[in-house]
From TrEMBL:
Record bears the keyword tRNA-binding: no
Protein name: NAD-P-binding protein
InterPro entries: NAD(P)-bd_dom_sf (IPR036291), SDR_fam (IPR002347)
Organism: Mycena metata
Transmembrane segments: none
MF annotations from Gene Ontology: oxidoreductase activity
Record-linked SUPFAM superfamilies: NAD(P)-binding Rossmann-fold domains (SSF51735)
Alphabetical UniProt keywords: Oxidoreductase
Superkingdom to which the source organism belongs: Eukaryota
Length: 341
């Protein structure tokens, strides 16, 4: 067997999936947030070429069908299943988890990719701020409810994985504000800060999950890279992206401030038409590596950047064990049940 190559900024998801095909083969993977032109879709697309089962999720079944059709067109033999999942609703999460728990298959990898739009203050049906609900609380509950399915995939040579797509932007903020998670305040809300907090919560959850499961489940968080995806294109998100300097005044990617993935660094390129302009969506690789790279099997709780462990890149507030434990307890209180196994 050829040794697994070193992954770099220029490595694509396609290349990582090919290099790790033996690890992906036979696995059942559930990926949240898989609409076309997004990170989750691309993850599903490259994994589908090798996996036993890929479960794609989203709250809009029509968009899910488009993703399913696109993947089937490229990989006719794929075993793919759609799952309606509204992460902004605790009842919706419970309904989706109940459906998954009727499946005969176990789950080897759970990838939390979905994220709410970075926009104006919104409350969910459960009275939570939408970004924290969709990016953290919903995924926390889903992981809790699917833990039996994950543990069922374990054997003497395999440990199931949970992957949280976070962001290097977590370091721009001051960490999770525990005073407003349960009682969000529209007067103090800032869309960008809400995003930073949600991404910090992803990292802290991976750390605490890893600690509590003591090797029964491996958890990782990651920075996927600066990529022009559909979350950057939502009308309500564009002003925030411009305020952060991620997008320029013209709504185009700011290439002076950030290192964007380039065409040669993508194994495939998707052309997007937004506001009469043509943009390029590049591929990424950290998600696939976090889900399958055997070289990080003994590094549960790690944060990845460019497919490599980069714990030194995590801000102190998002690597503090006390914050991780506190967040876990607060989130258990929100969902109304203990996350134990």
């Amino acid at each position: 067997m050829s040794p697994i190559p070193t992954f770099t900024f220029a490595t694509t998801a396609e290349e990582v999936a090919t290099a790790l095909s033996a690890e992906i083969r036979g696995k059942n993977v559930l990926i949240t947030g898989t609409s076309l032109n997004g990170i989750g879709f691309e993850t599903a697309r490259v994994i589908a070429k090798h996996a036993n089962l890929v479960i794609i999720t989203g709250y809009n079944d029509q968009r899910l069908k488009l993703s399913e059709e696109a993947i089937k067109k490229e990989v006719p033999t794929v075993n793919i299943r759609r799952l309606n999942l509204d992460l902004g609703s605790l009842a919706g999460v419970r309904k989706a988890a109940a459906e998954v728990n009727t499946y005969s298959e176990s789950i080897h990898v759970l990838i939390h990719n979905a994220a709410a739009a970075i926009g104006s203050f919104k409350l969910t049906v459960d009275g939570l701020e939408s970004q924290m609900a969709t990016d953290h609380v919903g995924p926390f509950l889903l992981t809790k409810l699917l833990t039996p399915k994950l543990l069922a995939s374990a054997d003497a040579s395999y440990t199931p994985r949970v992957v949280f797509v976070s962001s290097g932007a977590h370091a721009f903020g001051a960490g999770v504000d525990f005073n407003v998670i349960e009682k969000p305040d529209p007067k103090t809300y800032n869309a960008s800060v809400g995003y930073f907090q949600a991404k910090s919560a992803n990292i802290l959850t991976a750390i605490e999950l890893s600690k509590r499961f003591k090797g029964a489940i491996n958890a990782y968080s990651l920075h996927p890279g600066v990529i022009f995806t559909n979350i950057n294109q939502k009308e309500e998100s564009i002003p925030e992206m411009q305020a952060l300097g991620i997008l320029g005044p013209d709504g185009l990617p700011n290439k002076e401030k950030f290192d964007w993935k380039t065409i040669p660094q993508g194994a495939a390129t998707y052309i997007l038409i937004v506001n009469r302009s043509v943009f390029v969506l590049m591929l990424f690789d950290s998600t696939v590596a976090a889900a399958f790279d055997p070289r990080i099997s003994d590094k549960s709780g790690a944060y990845l950047d460019n497919s490599n462990v980069a714990n030194e890149s995590v801000a102190p507030h998002s690597s503090d064990p006390a914050n991780a434990e506190r967040l876990w307890t607060v989130t258990e209180n929100i969902i109304g049940e203990k996350f134990e196994f």
